[in-house]
């Protein structure tokens, strides 16, 4: 389960950017073709946040659909796995153009009133 290590890295990056300020929410974008299971990230998140500025933060995951473009005819198609066949010409020469993402889209920190 490589998602544990990925989650730990996400938390480390967000904690570093938060500079000690408690984090309320983290939003990730995870592509369906990224080989990262969003449910596993959700499972690991609360456990990995314990004792950090992210403890108690909510996690939002936006799943990005897979899309490919045929290198032969230019047709764009939906992909549900990292390979496929062009709907128009039958070619297997597809370029993945969307769905391999893993991004920290945003984080929300607590306001500090001085």
What attributes characterize this protein structure?
metal-binding, alpha+beta, 2 helices, zinc ion binding, 114 residues, hypothetical protein PF0899 fold, Hydrogenase maturation factor HypA
Q: Describe it for me?
A:
- Helix 2 links the parallel strand 1 and strand 2 (58-64).
- The N and C termini lie far apart (43 Å).
- 25% of the residues lie in helices and 33% in strands.
- It has 2 helices and 6 strands, in the order αβαβββββ.
- The strands form 2 sheets. The protein has a 3-stranded mixed β-sheet with strand order 2-1-6. The protein has a 3-stranded antiparallel β-sheet with strand order 4-3-5, with no helix packed on it.
- The radius of gyration is 18 Å and the shape is elongated.
- The mean pLDDT is 95.
- Helix 1 crosses helix 2.
- It has a domain at 3-65 and 98-109: 2-Layer Sandwich (hypothetical protein PF0899 fold), CATH 3.30.2320.50.
- The chain has 114 residues and is an alpha+beta fold.
Number of helices: 2
CATH class category label of the domain at 3-65 and 98-109: Alpha Beta
Number of strand segments: 6
Question: What's the average pLDDT?
Answer: 95
Roughly how many Å apart are the termini? 43 Å
Spans where pLDDT lies below 50 across 5 or more residues: none
H/E series: HEHEEEEE
Fold-level CATH name of the domain at 3-65 and 98-109: hypothetical protein PF0899 fold
Gross geometry = elongated
Q: Please report which band the strand proportion falls in: under 5%, 5-15%, 15-25%, 25-35%, 35-45% or over 45%.
A: 25-35%
- Strand order within the widest beta sheet: 2-1-6
Radius of gyration from CA coordinates: 18 Å
Major sheet? 3 strands, mixed
- What is the level-2 CATH architecture name of the domain at 3-65 and 98-109? 2-Layer Sandwich
Keywords: Metal-binding, Nickel, Zinc
Pfam families: HypA
GO molecular function, one term: zinc ion binding
Binding site for Zn(2+): 70, 73, 86, 89
């Amino acid at each position: 389960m490589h998602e544990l290590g990925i989650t730990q890295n996400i938390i480390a990056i967000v904690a570093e950017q938060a500079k000690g300020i408690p984090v309320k929410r983290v939003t990730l974008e995870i592509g369906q073709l990224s080989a990262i299971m969003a449910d596993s990230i959700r499972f690991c998140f609360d456990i990995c946040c314990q004792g950090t500025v992210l403890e108690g933060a909510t996690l939002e995951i936006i799943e990005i659909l897979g899309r490919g473009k045929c290198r032969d005819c230019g047709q764009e198609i939906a992909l549900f796995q990292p390979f496929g066949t062009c709907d128009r010409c039958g070619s297997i020469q597809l370029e993945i153009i969307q769905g391999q993402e893993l991004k920290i889209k945003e984080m929300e920190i607590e306001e500090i009133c001085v």
